[in-house]
């Protein structure tokens, strides 16, 4: 087993076919996380993150100079890209070559190319037209408390469960929470997005003081945007276990519902403490994520 990155730069800067150049380059100056530190984090969490990043079109937030430098949100391949990162022709857009990884070498090649955030589509490359998850992204407006965000997550859960769907939650690693439902890939993008929009619109209609479902910034003060737009074709959301290019090297961490409390904020888990958390868990709260998948319900009345 590789020496943990978390302990410093003594590990060999090479895993499989991927060579890390400048392993000591600091990606998160405030947290002291290096390129090698990130590679070691991903090598450790590979079995957990694989279902969420392998075999899916990816958008990447690249930050070659680290989080304080210039960043690029990139949805297509680039010149000089590693062979471990694959390209996939999007059948509905001949100009588009989507970014895909298949294995840990692919993920490490992403680290080598300074991808500090990994944002997959909610679909696998096996069938690009049938999403395999719903992601409800809860975005707090100014002045919204963490307790209110937690309430919103429970409200989304209640509505998804009422539709007969399993519901999971993760921190975003930023400011909010992501409520995620594994779907059996059967409905198409339009149906899934319409379903997600229906939930967001219903919440905004039923509790207009708390929720909005449109992205108009001015309307969001003191409210939570129930962002359903993560569910369209080509839309992305940060992957479970992905790092974020934000202060403290946070990661998007899957949680158990009863972990939602003041003790764990949206950026509580980081590249530095995530592996300890995972090692200490008696049960992975997302253990049944894929096995509990359900098809999008029909006849939802929308
Ligand atoms: P937070 O909890 O802070 O909201 P988040 O990951 O949910 O964290 P959002 O701003 O709500 O962040 O979502 C932005 C989403 O839009 C991302 O998930 C990403 O996939 C997508 N996206 C599209 N363009 C960009 C871009 N230029 N930079 C960052 N994200 C982008
Ligand atoms: Mn968000
Ligand atoms: Mn959002």
Automatic annotation (TrEMBL):
Full-length numbering of the shown residues: 541 to 842 of 842
Q: What is this protein called?
A: DNA ligase (ATP)
Species of the source:
Rhizobium setariae
